[in-house]
Design goal:
The protein has 182 residues and is mainly α. It is built from 7 helices and 2 strands. Helix 3 packs across helix 4.
């Protein structure tokens, strides 16, 4: 096996493991699912920045499957696809640089976009599988879709903010590592 393939597999495995471990460092847990963690997606974001979207997709996909197997709440295969497979696979989008110069700020839009897309899959799942107007009305909403949007993005936005702050703080130290090795 080629040296870069071995490096990709090892770094992917370590990134998945670190993200999985960090996902247990929960700062706040939402009552109906979802949580704010201590930058649990960061190792996968770093992996996607280093190896690109395609390889980052595979690592994020495996992370989503692990989240589904260990602690996921699945009521239908399509819901599992939306809430775990597609939602977590969106992390790979963070490996896309906006602009020609790859600075720490060129990845911030893609990190935000990854959270927006991840949340969109969660909102679609909530609308199809968890459409409960009693819960929405108890929260002060007259429209379930607006409730699902507010619920999911309330914790995802905080999680994204924590990740972005940590990413900005550590990027300069990781810059030489983030360049792909030839």
């Amino acid at each position: 096996m080629e040296k870069n393939n071995i490096r990709f597999i090892v770094e992917g495995g370590v990134s998945i493991a670190l993200s999985f471990i960090l996902s247990f460092v929960v700062l706040f847990k939402m009552p109906l699912g979802g949580s704010v963690t201590l930058a649990s997606r960061l190792p996968l974001v770093i992996f996607a920045v280093r190896w690109g979207f395609k390889k980052g997709f595979w690592a994020a996909l495996i992370f989503g499957i692990l989240n589904m197997i260990f602690g996921g709440y699945v009521i239908h295969p399509a819901q599992a696809l939306l809430d775990y497979i597609l939602s977590f696979s969106a992390i790979a989008i963070s490996g896309i640089s906006f602009g020609k110069s790859k600075t720490k700020f060129s990845y911030i839009p893609s990190i935000i976009l990854s959270y927006l897309i991840s949340g969109a899959f969660n909102v679609i799942s909530a609308f199809i599988f968890f459409n409960d107007m009693a819960t929405a009305k108890a929260a002060g909403f007259t429209n379930f879709t607006l409730y699902a949007f507010a619920y999911n993005y309330s914790f995802l936005s905080v999680d994204a903010l924590i990740l972005i702050i940590v990413f900005l703080l550590i990027y300069d130290r990781l810059k030489s590592f983030l360049n792909k090795q030839k």
